[in-house]
Amino acid sequence: MSQTILIIGGGIAGLCAAVTLQHIGMKVKVYERSPEPAAVGAGIIIAPNALQALEPYGISSEIIRQGCPSGGFQLLSDRGRPISKLAVPPEYGSLYSLHRKDLHHILLSALPPGTVEWGKSLVQLEQKDTHVQAVFHDGSQAEGDLVVAADGIHSSIRKQLVPKDTYRYAGYTCWRGIVPGDGLPGLSDHFIETWGTKGRFGIVPLPGNQVYWYGLINARQNDPRVAKYTSEDLHHLFKDYHDPIPDLLLRTAPHDIIHRDIVDITPMERFYSDRVVVIGDAAHAITPNMGQGACQAIEDARTLAECLHVQPNYQQAFADYDARRRQRIEHISNQSWRIGQMAQSQSILFTRIRNQLMRYAPKSVGRSQARSIYQFRL
Ligand SMILES: Cc1cc2nc3c(=O)[nH]c(=O)nc-3n(C[C@H](O)[C@H](O)[C@H](O)COP(=O)(O)OP(=O)(O)OC[C@H]3O[C@@H](n4cnc5c(N)ncnc54)[C@H](O)[C@@H]3O)c2cc1C
């Protein structure tokens, strides 16, 4: 029998869950606190595993049509010397970069009009014997059989289920920006990430001849001085890095940058509680070092729908979902954390040894790691 599902949060996880659950015949409503579609953020990279998960819905083909493809990441030293190539095995296709707002538009276009109720901020969720009841800030209410909590890293639903704080500050802070790419030298068919002792810098071409960049430096959490940095301050920090890094920062208007401390969430011990299941960043926010946070949220959405489709008992379906997702999420979350620690080292000796080891590491190791990440399995 078709169930009524309330999805709280209209980010990538919530919108994907709406698509996958509607596809199996569920009645779905998304409640999003923003008054209108407004994906904050700069660019985003969607990896082959997420494209495989979205295949049945016509979304992957749209991402491929609109995105900028890349065969992987070229890792460089601050002087621009190659360290390693993190290549996508060709049989899996490519990474695709696009503007976050375009990804949201693609996901929204895959839903019937009226699926998302904008301007609805959940303030209370009550699980009853036979249903769930959601109360919103404007006093309105909604009832459903089940709830999908997709309300992001600061999820109030997760805090209700697991009051203990599970945030973990990674020790570094991040800025992102988008600039016109006209005349920029040195953009290849691989996205670029540069590791130096002063920080890390990423360069990712976007459609429409734009370039998405990100910079990460080690800093104290919530440092008010660092939070005020402009692109000029970042230019000062990265001015000795290889081209076109200084140029990208000079092209960025001083305040046209997005800043965020990097934190993750230890994956919840159980991704569900009775009629509520938690997905995406709400359940397991991952550091961005592998570009897998949104991709794993997409895998969550596809797997959840599959479990509910084959298992009519929702409690068993949620348990199956947890069992299918747990190992992969924990593995990627831990690996991403370790990459961040290694990439952010400020020790000259350590970075020399690291770079040498990476230069001469057998290619088969990288290929088998890439296969395990870029292969989605239901
Ligand atoms: C610097 C950086 C770069 C990244 N790059 C990549 C990348 O290239 N590739 C990748 O795969 N991942 C990347 N990620 C991770 C990715 O951004 C996240 O994993 C992804 O956006 C999570 O989506 P979500 O829907 O779970 O959460 P969110 O995007 O946070 O969405 C949650 C939604 O819930 C809404 N909400 C919250 N509370 C309520 C409430 N009470 N009521 C109603 N609505 C509510 C919010 O308004 C929001 O729209 C990156 C992350 C960072 C920090």
Can you put this structure into words, describing what you see?
With 378 residues, the chain is of the alpha/beta class. It has a single domain (4-167, 264-374), classed as FAD/NAD(P)-binding domain (3-Layer(bba) Sandwich). It is built from 13 helices and 19 strands. The strands form four sheets. Strands 6-5-14-15-16-13-17 form a seven-stranded mixed sheet, sandwiched between helices. The protein has a six-stranded mixed sheet with strand order 8-2-1-12-19-18. α1 (12-23) runs parallel beside α4 (100-109) and α10 packs antiparallel against α11 (314-343). The two termini are 23 Å apart. The protein binds flavin-adenine dinucleotide. Residues 8-14, 31-34, 44-45, 121-122, 150-153, 156, 174, 176, 214, 260, 280-282, 288, 291-295, 297 line the site of flavin-adenine dinucleotide. Flavin-adenine dinucleotide binds next to α1, β2, β3, β13 and α9.
CATH topology: FAD/NAD(P)-binding domain
Q: Tell me the name of the CATH class.
A: Alpha Beta
Assign the structural class, choosing from mainly alpha, mainly beta, alpha/beta, alpha+beta, or little secondary structure: alpha/beta
Number of domains: 1
Number of helices: 13
User: What is the end-to-end distance?
Assistant: 23 Å
User: How does the major sheet shape up?
Assistant: 7 strands, mixed
Helix content: 25-40%
